[in-house]
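We treat protein structure as text, and this decision shapes the records that our systems exchange. The tokens are whole numbers drawn from a learned vocabulary of local backbone shapes. One such record is reproduced below, unchanged from the form in which we store it:
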Amino acid sequence: RDEANKHQIKGAHLSPAFNPNLATSRHSRPANAAPLSAVQVETLRKSALVLETTGDPRVLRAHAGIVKRMKPGLAALIQQHTEEAASDMDFKLTQGMISLLETVDAALE
């Protein structure tokens, strides 16, 4: 029996509490990308819509590239707004960006 591990619970490392994907923004690493501008968010939104609606492989590849490149910036923007959100308008804006991120993820599948 190791005295240094007396408080360790067997299997604790498997707990969802240690999953970094569930960490709050205050405790998670900041996104490495720069947050997107409003124009970039609109470009991302349009490209995600194209991915959902087109069947042309060339167009799909082009817009998938745009979406993949801009996704980290959207995550950074969401993180920034989550940390700074104070008003109902900020909350709604953040919800809209999270919805766009879900759309992007679905379009890339």
User: Anything to note?
Assistant: The radius of gyration is 19 Å. The helical segments are 38-53, 57-84, 88-108. Residues 57-84 form the longest helix (28 residues). The mean pLDDT is 78.
